[in-house]
TrEMBL record:
Protein name listed in UniProt: Prolyl 4-hydroxylase
Molecular-function GO term, any one: iron ion binding
Source organism of the structure: Chitinimonas taiwanensis DSM 18899
Keywords, comma-separated and alphabetical: Dioxygenase, Iron, Metal-binding, Oxidoreductase, Vitamin C
One Pfam match: 2OG-FeII_Oxy_3
Cofactors that this protein relies on: L-ascorbate
Domain Fe2OG dioxygenase: 170-279
The keyword Oxidoreductase belongs to this UniProt entry's keyword annotation: yes
Length: 284
């Protein structure tokens, strides 16, 4: 019989040793782009000590992404429960919103104060292994807060989930990043590329990422814009404002126009807080 790729063999071995159920392994493979019936057959064969061939997950045809309805009601204002944000700009393709008044000045200062002592060099996901790694393309320091880890963070998590129109429990913990002069994050996608074997271990913990909210904790003196190079969009960082972008539709397609980055900071520093939302409960 033909064989699975070495990367997927290693992933299946690791998850079997961890005691993962066949159902969870199949689910992760489906989220990574496999056909459901094919994934089920492959897991059964693997557990039986056999091997099988598998074609790479089907590539999405360029230009085939379908823009479906936004997950939140859209007008000039968005209700975050304890705070109302103003919609300053909306783009339909890709789906991008610029929001004002997401956080107060005092809340921004509180997040920065809580984060300063915990900052560490930021990492990204290795496409082959799924492990965290430091890369030159991302020159920032960061830290995380667990979901609803205390009363203050819980209030922010609840507000952000409501603004994004997505369940609170589907959110990853808040990530805080600081960029100094010259700091940047070159264009990338926030979703986990289905063709990368390393994506499977992350997709297994709540499914694919579907949307991002980047909140600016300070007003940057020069530079530091959030850029969408293929869409010709640029958002300047202003304290308390945010940029929301959605990149996964109800069909499970991923939007290539969501390619984005953080332009170099030219003067001062840049502090941001990021929330990523998943398809289902994160960690489940």
């Amino acid at each position: 019989m033909p064989e699975l790729t070495a990367e997927w063999q290693a992933w299946l071995t690791e998850n079997q040793q961890r005691g993962c159920s066949s159902e969870s392994m199949v689910s992760a493979m489906v989220q990574a782009g496999f056909d459901a019936l094919e994934a089920g057959a492959l897991v059964r064969l693997f557990r039986a000590g056999q091997s099988a061939v598998v074609a790479p997950p089907a590539a999405q045809t360029k230009g085939s992404y379908v823009y479906d309805a936004w997950p939140m009601p859209l007008g000039n204002r968005l209700d975050g429960g304890d705070r109302v944000a103003t919609v300053a700009m909306r783009c339909e393709q890709p789906q991008v919103l610029v929001l004002d008044d997401v956080l107060s000045t005092e809340e921004c200062a509180e997040v920065i104060a809580r984060s300063q002592a915990k900052l560490r060099r930021s990492t990204t996901v290795d496409p082959s292994s799924g492990a965290e790694q430091v890369i030159a393309q991302r020159s920032s320091e960061g830290t995380f807060f667990a979901l609803c880890e205390d009363e203050f963070i819980a209030r922010l998590d609840a507000r952000i989930a409501r603004l994004m129109g997505w369940p609170l429990e589907n959110g990853e913990g808040l990530q805080i990043l600081r960029y100094g002069v010259g700091g940047e994050y070159r264009p990338h996608f926030d979703y986990f590329p289905p063709d990368d074997p390393g994506s499977a271990k992350h997709i297994a913990q709540g499914g694919q990422r579907v949307a991002t909210l980047v909140i600016y904790l300070n007003t940057v003196a020069e530079g530091g814009a959030t850029i969408f190079p293929d869409a010709g969009l640029s958002v300047s960082p202003r304290q308390g404002s945010a940029v929301y972008f959605r990149y996964a539709n109800g069909q499970g397609q991923l939007d290539p126009l969501s390619l984005h980055g953080g332009a170099p900071v030219e003067a001062g520093e840049k502090w941001i807080m990021t929330k990523w939302m998943r398809e289902r409960r994160y960690g489940a």
